[in-house]
Each structure stands twice: as structure tokens, then as C-alpha cells.
């Protein structure tokens, strides 16, 4: 009894001290806008343009903290802090935000991009990194070269560029992952199925899309009373079957002795090495597929807009192509090392308008302190990629403009602009969550830019008036497109179409 009387106040004192320390910690959160009762900064957090504005860094500094229904959100506004947190402390900043509807029901945590930091994620990451490493991606050059030629021919035939970019992007990624033949139309049933899957995923991760993210107890509502749960579970089965059928075709080809380069074939042949189940394999290939198609199409749209706004870029690129490639044949990957301005154009496109302005969100898996500020466990961390990519101290006073020459040295060769970033920007993400498909993306854009500028001249339609809008973003989930614009493609010389067709015949 005496022990109990002594212990009780001691326990109370300990609890009181813990509460005081917790209160003190939360008073030392990074600065941010004042929120409303209960809902916090829900209106600000949903406004991507407000979050990304350089004014936010002026207002709050390198770190800005918001809260939505008690969920902390940390916006990182500088490269120094992003590296300190997401790379130097990657052991606690490599998680993903909790998404109950997405990870528990729609994908069962098998969509690699959004899988939490866990043993499952580590098992998925290894084959993804190895399967798309710099030494492997040259196996995909013939696919990318062929598709670049097909895209140029498509743009010659008909002007609606969005559908051609989408067909092109999905066709490349389907061939790389499953070695499927070229897709003829964006209406192909395989593409439609994957695009629908991507749209479902993007809907689930939109802020405020599901109340269960703010009230986790809702995950226990019986299925018959929760249509959102029934729908998510239904689509998980359907999407699993879709990806399993696609990978099954690769397995059938391997069984017949048909062994063509593809990520799917690599997984199947190394099943024992990677220790993935058939469903995990199917979802991993599907993850790489769904992540790569939309971002490539977006990058092509931004590049084309930049060409219209800065016609001098086309002139310089074509001069380089004329000198290195000439007019007798389209470019190939063998030409790219001798085309530094084209390679610089790839870097500048990805820097100038990243397809995912805040990267894919990270989350902290432990409490942390940084520069005297407390970052609670479970905080969503958003690197402000657009702002970091526009840092005038790194990219010059014209960082808001599209200028590939910023990546060239005095001898006209590609130079690094960011310490520790061979790509020269941060659009591929940070730390252990960096995009494993970045070398494929760079190769695709490099051969696309070279082929399209070799064959075509891009210009605004006759009668087009007004300035083109290069800063307004059309947000699609975590991604962003430019405002729709018109453009026409004109063959640069009479023989261009014939030479493209002859080159395409070599890939038949």
C-alpha cells in the first residue's frame, strides 16, 4: 500500500512532465499560416498555387508547417533542407503518408510508388532499381527510337498533339515493361484500362477525397454500409487481374523460348533472387507502367509550350542536329553524346516545369528536431520542387525562363549545376524515394526531342493571338499540365516523312 501511495504521485509527475514536454515541442513547430478551429489550414493545403509561391518562402522561410484535421504537413522550400531531411536522414523520412483508402483497399499497399517504408517496399525497390539501372536501359533504345519515329510521323499526319503524346508515352512504357508491339491508338483497351486505374489512384490521394483519412475509425464500417470500400476492393481485384494477365503473356513467351528485353521478363527470370509472389511481381511492373506513362506525356507538353514561347531554342537545336546528323537519316541514340544542346534541353524541360510540382509526398516515421524546430512523427513532407528548381542562386537570374544553354559550359558541353545531382534538377525526387525510372525518362525525352526537331518545325497556328500561358498549372492529383494551347507541326524538308518511314521499316 505504501509503495502504491509513493508510486502514484511519481507516475502522475512523469505523465505531467511528458505532457509539458509534448506541449513545448509542439510550440516549436516550424512557422506557418494560422489555421481555423478543428479543420486547420484545409483551404491553404488544397491550394497548390499558394503553397508553391516563392512568397511562402519569404513569409515563413525554408520550412512551412500546416495542419489539416490535426494532420501535419511540412513544405520544404530549399534544397539544403530537403537534402538534410530527405537524404541525410532518409532512415526516418522515406515513408509515405497514410492513405487508408488507397493502400488498405484499392491497392493493398502493392502500388510501389505509394507503398510505405517497410520490408515489402524494400523487396519491391531492389528489382525496380536494378531493372532500370543506367547499365540496363540501353536494352530499351530500339523501342524508344522506334516510338520517336512513330510520334514524328503521327504529328505530320494530324495535329491533335495531346492524343499522340499519350499514345506514344503509353506505347513506350508498355513495350519496355512487357515487350508488347506498338500501340496504334490511345483508345487501345490496354491503355484505357491502365489510364482508368491511374485516375482511380489519383482520385484517392486528392486532399479531402475520403473522410476516412481524417477519421480512421471509418475503415471499420461494414462493407454493406460503405460503398467506397466495396468499390475499392472490387477494383483491386480487377486491377490485379489486369496486371497479372499482362505479365502472364511475358511468362508465356519465355516458356516458348521468346526472350525479349523487358522489365517483366527480368522479374520472372529472377523470381528466386527477388522473392516476390506472382501478384507482387504483377503489381510492381504495373507500378512502373502507371508512373511512367503520364509523366512522359506531361513533359512533352511542357517542352512543346517552351518551344513556342522561345523559338530561338528550336533554331539552335536544329543547327546542332544539322551539323551532327544531317538530312539523310533521323537521329539515333548513337548521336545523343554528340548533341549536348539536346541533352541540355532534356534537363531544362524537367527543371523548368516538373510533372509533379511537390514530388510524391514523403512522411516522417519518427519525431525529429531540425534547427530548433520540432517535426512530429507522421508529418507529411512536401519538397517544393518547382521552387527549388527555380533557385536563382543555382540557375541564374533567368531561372523562370526556359533556357537549355544554362546547362552548357564555355565549350558547349553539358555541365553539372547542382551538387550531387547529375541530372541537374530535383524533379526525380529525393533519397531512397528517388524515381528508379529516371534513366528511361531521360532517354525517351532525348531521342524524342532530337527526332521531332530533326523532322519538324513547331509553330502557333495562323491567326493565333495573345501570349501563351506558361505559369498557370492544370492540376491532376499530384501532377500538373500546362493550360491547353494550339500548335501545328510542319515538316522541315520535303524528304522528312519518307526518311522517317524508311527508318521505321528497320524496326519491323
Automatic annotation (TrEMBL):
InterPro entries: Cyt_P450, Cyt_P450_CS, Cyt_P450_E_grp-I, Cyt_P450_sf, Cytochrome_P450_fung. SUPFAM superfamilies: Cytochrome P450. Heme binds at residue 435. Pathway: Secondary metabolite biosynthesis. The keyword Oxidoreductase applies. PROSITE patterns: CYTOCHROME_P450. GO terms for molecular function: heme binding; iron ion binding; monooxygenase activity; oxidoreductase activity, acting on paired donors, with incorporation or reduction of molecular oxygen. Residues 1-24 form the signal peptide. Its cofactor is heme. The keyword Isomerase does not apply. It comes from the Eukaryota. Pfam families: p450. Keywords: Heme, Iron, Metal-binding, Monooxygenase, Oxidoreductase, Signal. Belongs to the cytochrome P450 family. PANTHER family: P450, PUTATIVE (EUROFUNG)-RELATED (PTHR46300:SF7), P450, PUTATIVE (EUROFUNG)-RELATED-RELATED (PTHR46300). This is Cytochrome P450. It comes from Lactarius akahatsu.
Amino acid at each position: 500500500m505504501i509503495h502504491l501511495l509513493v508510486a502514484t504521485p511519481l507516475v502522475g509527475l512523469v505523465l505531467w512532465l511528458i505532457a509539458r514536454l509534448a506541449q513545448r515541442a509542439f510550440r516549436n513547430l516550424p512557422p506557418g499560416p494560422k489555421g481555423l478551429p478543428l479543420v486547420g489550414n484545409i483551404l491553404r493545403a488544397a491550394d497548390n498555387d499558394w503553397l508553391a509561391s516563392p512568397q511562402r518562402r519569404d513569409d515563413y522561410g525554408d520550412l512551412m508547417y500546416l495542419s489539416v484535421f490535426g494532420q501535419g504537413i511540412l513544405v520544404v522550400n530549399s534544397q539544403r533542407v530537403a537534402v538534410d531531411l530527405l537524404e541525410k536522414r532518409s532512415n526516418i523520412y522515406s515513408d509515405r503518408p497514410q492513405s487508408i483508402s488507397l493502400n488498405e483497399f484499392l491497392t493493398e499497399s502493392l502500388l510501389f510508388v505509394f507503398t510505405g517504408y517497410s520490408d515489402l517496399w524494400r523487396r519491391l525497390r531492389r528489382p525496380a532499381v536494378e531493372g532500370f539501372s543506367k547499365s540496363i536501359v540501353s536494352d530499351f533504345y530500339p523501342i524508344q527510337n522506334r516510338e520517336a519515329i512513330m510520334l514524328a510521323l503521327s504529328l505530320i499526319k494530324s495535329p491533335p498533339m495531346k492524343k499522340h503524346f499519350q499514345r506514344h508515352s503509353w506505347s513506350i512504357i508498355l513495350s519496355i515493361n512487357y515487350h508488347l508491339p506498338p500501340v496504334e491508338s490511345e483508345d487501345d483497351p490496354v491503355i484505357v484500362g491502365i489510364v482508368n486505374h491511374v485516375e482511380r489512384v489519383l482520385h484517392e490521394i486528392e486532399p479531402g477525397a475520403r473522410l476516412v483519412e481524417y477519421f480512421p475509425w471509418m475503415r471499420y464500417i461494414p462493407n454493406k454500409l460503405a460503398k467506397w470500400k466495396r468499390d475499392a476492393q472490387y477494383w483491386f481485384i480487377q486491377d490485379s487481374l489486369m496486371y497479372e494477365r499482362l505479365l502472364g503473356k511475358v511468362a508465356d513467351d519465355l516458356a516458348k523460348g521468346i526472350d525479349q528485353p523487358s522489365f517483366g521478363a527480368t522479374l520472372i527470370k529472377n523470381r528466386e533472387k527477388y522473392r516476390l509472389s506472382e501478384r507482387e511481381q504483377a503489381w510492381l511492373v504495373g507500378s512502373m507502367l502507371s508512373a511512367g506513362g503520364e509523366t512522359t506525356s506531361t513533359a512533352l507538353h511542357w517542352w512543346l509550350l517552351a518551344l513556342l514561347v522561345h523559338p530561338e531554342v528550336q533554331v539552335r537545336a536544329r543547327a546542332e542536329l544539322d551539323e551532327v546528323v544531317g538530312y539523310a537519316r533521323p537521329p539515333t541514340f548513337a548521336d545523343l553524346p554528340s548533341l549536348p544542346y539536346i541533352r541540355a534541353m532534356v534537363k531544362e524541360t524537367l527543371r523548368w516545369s516538373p510533372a509533379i510540382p511537390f514530388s510524391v509526398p514523403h512522411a516522417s516515421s519518427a519525431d525529429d528536431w531540425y534547427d530548433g524546430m520540432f517535426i512530429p512523427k507522421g508529418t507529411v513532407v512536401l519538397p517544393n520542387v518547382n521552387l527549388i528548381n527555380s533557385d536563382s542562386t543555382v540557375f541564374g537570374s533567368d531561372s523562370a525562363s526556359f533556357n537549355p544553354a544554362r546547362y552548357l559550359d564555355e565549350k558547349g558541353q553539358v555541365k553539372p549545376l547542382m551538387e550531387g545531382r547529375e541530372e541537374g534538377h530535383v524533379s526525380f525526387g529525393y533519397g531512397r524515394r528517388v524515381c528508379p525510372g529516371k534513366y528511361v525518362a531521360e532517354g525517351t525525352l532525348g531521342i524524342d526531342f532530337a527526332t521531332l526537331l530533326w523532322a519538324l518545325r513547331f509553330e502557333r497556328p495562323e491567326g493565333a493571338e495573345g501570349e501563351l500561358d506558361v505559369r498557370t498549372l492544370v492540376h491532376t492529383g499530384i501532377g500538373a499540365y500546362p493550360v491547353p494551347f494550339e500548335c501545328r507541326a510542319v515538316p522541315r524538308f520535303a524528304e522528312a516523312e519518307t526518311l522517317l518511314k524508311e527508318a521505321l521499316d528497320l524496326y519491323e
